[in-house]
Amino acid sequence: MTNKSRWIIAALLACGTAAGAQGPVGKDLFIRGAFNGWGTDNAMVYKGKGVYEADILISPGNHAFKVGSKDWSAEWVIDPNASVKVATDTDYRMDTSAGPEDYLFVKTTAPYKFSVDVSDPKAPKLRVTRLPNPAVAAINPHKGHQQQTAVAYPTFDGKQETVRFSVQDAAAPLRTYAQSTTMQLRDPGPQYAVYSEPEGLPVSRTGNLAFDALFALAATEMRQDSVSEIKDGNYNGGAAIPCECFETGEKWHYVWTRDLSYAVDLGLAMLDPARTRNSLDFKLSAFRKGLARAQQVAGSADGLQVIQDTGSGGSWPVSTDRVTWAFGAEEALKSLPAAERKPFAARALKALSNTIENDRIAAFDKASGLYTGEQSFLDWRDQSYAAWIVNDLSSMASSKSLSTNVGHYKALTLAASLAAEHGDDARARKYKGWARELKSAINARLWLPGAGMYSSLSAGHFDGAPMHKFDWLGQSLAIVTGIADGAKARSILARYPHGPMGAPVIYPQQQGMPVYHNRAMWPFVTAYGLKAAAMAGNASVADAAYDTLMRGAAVNLSNMENLEWLSGQPLLLDEANPSLIGPVINSRRQLWSVGAYLGMVVENVFGVSMEPGGIRVQPFITAKLRREAFGKTDAIALHGLRLHGKQVDVRVELPPASAAGGYYEVAKVTLNGAQVSQQIRLDQLKAANTITVTLGALRAGESAIHRVSADPYAESPAVFGPREPVISSLAAANGQAVAIDIGAGGNPSGTVYNVYRDGKLVAAGLAAGTWRDPGATKGSCYAVEAQFEKSGNRSHHSAPRCVDGGLHIPVTDARVKASLGVQGQNARFAAPHIKGWGKPGDRFAVDGIKVDSAGRYRVQVQYHNAANQINLGISGGVKWLAVKDAAGRIAAQGVVQLPHARVEKENTPLVYSTPLEARLKAGTYRLELSDFYNMSYLESNSTFSAAGGVEGPSNVFDIYGIRILKSN
Q: Which of 12, 208, 342, 474 is least crowded, fewest Cβ atoms below 10 Å from its Cβ?
């Protein structure tokens, strides 16, 4: 909360102002936390005498929470510098400013009363009290139902959960099902669900009641996620925004670019193309009107482009996976009727072109041929990056990730296709060329031959090595998009580790981190693994995916956001280590999980996928699926699929079940009784159609799968990586050899260390201690990784350290020329600085920079950006840096990023921007910093509640100086 807000509260109370419905605070307050998706479902009610209360039914877990207003202008925590574990029946003084979340540990589902007493406006008090559980009458949802079946699911601890399915009338055109489970659910509620097959969506009839019911559950949840308005506390003052869109889940009532795009690509676009188009269109934005535009910004005058949502370091281009929009757009374009497709295709081309052109300027590394930016969807930095990265987000911004680069590839290939369609052959050739070069760079730079998989990500600047870290989304997308050839695809599918319940989204796991992206399975990622397995013919990996998706939906009564990977639990309750409990957030009917399940049935089981101008029919039914899911029938059917306004029924005729492995080839396809190819043109379809697929021989295909297992409560070296080590000191000796002291980072015996110089491995298998490199030069930079000898699992790299300390020029230097004056040091920032620099028109330059010898250099800005927290916002600094020689000629220029940085009460550490690479001759140079743009410049963010929103764009930070380092 701002000082102004504190003053208003104090004034209201001091003057005895009559409190209305909002109470003396003058605004609505909410308990916002992991149990409600950080939303506004739990409003505090003013009870008088300065006390606000909210009663909330909370399930087991270690729940993070804050007291906050709808727009987060009020944000109260107990300690602004540290999280506090809250005990019940205890008073806590709150700080009315932003800070880390507090936690409430809950062992069993129960109602809790949250009370906030603001009688003393300078010291609000929080108290949490457990209330008695209300009595609940037992209900049998299956009573009177015509058919019932039960499915037993073994658990990780040697027990089992039972899921029961029933149907009221099996002969009804649209059935009503009941589903109950013995597993304790993640969120409070009954242990059963009752749902009906929605009108207008397809239904399955397979002779397997559980299979048909789970498909109906996914269709029901798709309809629940189909809304007429969306909302997020950070936008539009928390008020609803009209949109015939998909919302993201039960706890997430907004539309986010990557969630939506993957969901519709996996299965939703085919089933509701109009809502898909609306949702995708909502994630496009032009620049704000009247905004001054830097000359380096590319694209059309309005700047229409894909939105990078709020996030790490202040959003784009720290994160650049907004390009995943292309996955969804491509499927929408295949599914929309011609009259609706045409205007959307033109708009998609414009938005993709503007996005591509500006990403090429701000986030493309010419040296590697790869795009920079955070991993796609793995956007909780400490969950999947080195622990030190939270203090150096510039290094995350300059790293390159597999999943995000595959997204750029998809954007380029789709834009090339649309450009050709619109007669823009020059643009089509350009984007095809860029896509071809990117595919080559991904295979050259990120493929690890020894691992037989792609590296998930490279280290950032001063290192750059591809790390031995792996993620299932990136691997699967590389296969699905064709970046991986057949041999690479087979290798990936055979080598990526699968636990007893399925494939984790990252491998190996991170120590000291709770379950969310770390130690987790995400159904949408599993579904991409299924698509990849089907393409490459790996029945074992496909079977693992089928099992994961069906089990997860069955035992949870919903398509959950994520699950702990070794146990399959929606919440692994670890009372001994409450900080590791998780998944820390988990929503029912998560949109991309729903899309994943629907796509699994329609595309993989029944084999129907959209192609430009037609459909393809290619079921991937394994011997195991046929035997275990469809063993009681000779044919399965999908009824009521609507494609381009025409009804399509699909019947798959099954061969006899076999005890062998593999998958069944397609022997014959007929359309309305006439034999056709597996590619069916739209003009071949009538108003109503029946496609019959006859499966033939059982093909062995690929069966290799890498299985791993461990105790889900232990951080076993078998499935975890080591903690990253540290370079505790680095010193040049006699102007030649460099001595590096390797700190173990807390790793146990059986850990060895590998040293990288300038991104190349130069020593392996070392013990912690001192190592000397006789091959060092002044421009050498080093990083170290830890490796468990037995499992081979490796850590992230240490923070890099360079031999050259560089030339540092503070803002107090006479050579610095700026439009804003220098301010003195204070307790928080112990150095003189230029405060709040970066508004359009602000000037900053450094003259007379002397370079003694020709070579490669890296130029960085020393700064601090406190516009928002490191995991939030749209106000990361994005500027244009130019280096000019004595004659005024450009020697080097490009975008530098200045992401949000951490703030401490005293002695906040200063940070550096991403570096500008410059090849300079000996001589004198001038440095100039000017504007570029960030996501706050987009019209869609004009209602954002924090920096860069309602008060206008924010691209400002404090400058402390510049640094120039010699580079090899």
A: 342
